[in-house]
Amino acid sequence: MIDFDGQAAIVTGAGRGLGRLYALELARRGASVVVNDLGSSMDGQGSNPAPARQVVKEIRAGGGVAVASLDSVDSVEGGQAIVQSALDHFGRLDAVVSNAGIFHTAPFDELSPEDWRRMRRVHLDGSFYLSQPAYRHMRAQGGGRFVFIASSAGLFGQPNSAHYAAAKAGIVGLANVIALDGAAHGILANTVLPFGYSRMVTETVGERHQLGEDLPFLKAIEPELVVPMVVFLASTACTFTHQSFSACAGRFSRVFVGLGDGWVGTAPTAEDIEAHLAEVAATEPFIVPGSIFDEVADTCSRLGIPL
Ligand SMILES: NC(=O)c1ccc[n+]([C@@H]2O[C@H](COP(=O)([O-])OP(=O)(O)OC[C@H]3O[C@@H](n4cnc5c(N)ncnc54)[C@H](O)[C@@H]3O)[C@@H](O)[C@H]2O)c1
Fold first, then answer.
1. Which residue's alpha carbon is at the smallest distance from atom 1 of ligand 1?
2. Cβ proximity of 134 and 117 under 8 Å
3. Which overall architecture, per CATH, does domain 8-255 show?
4. What's the pTM value of the predicted model, to 2 decimals?
5. What residue spans define the domains of the chain?
């Protein structure tokens, strides 16, 4: 059995929705959990201590160990305070689930700079503010695991959410580099692209009962179905890093960025690109680069350039 006995974990945005379920399951499996939640509205307004405190109550009622953190992830001080809470209460930090998030939609031409900044601040800046102090501690401790909650919106695109998608895609870039930098220190970083029925769904598309039987997909995306992926990646059973996984309605699958074989030209012109478009745009064969160096190595090998 995968357990977290003697380990401490942080889950941000754990007062509601999917984050609450990650926190409950980590605690059930023995982790001491910092339940962080600002208690804001779906689009990031206001604050409320009740959701984080309620989840801590639930965990304690089940015999688990948890402490509430009401800090916002969207500042340097907030990120530090969340990490410090784990150290103060549990004396260690083994896993971080960076999950806190907000949502809002607007057609691209109506998106305000403030909407853009608010979204980036919570998702991308917040992931950095939290992960840097956590990384420093994990490095000194000899290792740890990050699970960053990204989104299919960021990797595949979603209409009317350029700010959300850009911030979520940025999180994948952040996780990739933490995975590379952390490899020598036993620090692993992976991302999850979840689907789960939460207020992010109800406040965007409507309640299940309003939609009737029209959208069976909504019935399928039980938020509990995301939990196994996140818990596995947060555990010491997970030994890989630098990967992304979709967790949607009980389907778990790798999401990756591939580099196609492409076409190699000598003194190529725009017309050559047009003439070789099939090869340039082909998605097979491909490799999945583990870093920028794999792309360089692959290109050198295609061109016969010694490394
Ligand atoms: N639900 C989905 O289908 C879905 C899909 C893709 C990605 N996600 C992502 O999963 C995560 C959880 O989403 P959810 O559906 O459970 O939403 P949710 O709104 O139910 O929960 C998000 C929680 O984050 C908290 N939060 C917001 N800003 C915060 C801040 N600055 N500091 C600390 N806490 C903050 C909120 O108070 C809330 O309790 C989010 O990052 C979201 O973008 C969800």
1. 196
2. no
3. 3-Layer(aba) Sandwich (3.40)
4. 0.97
5. 8-255, 259-303
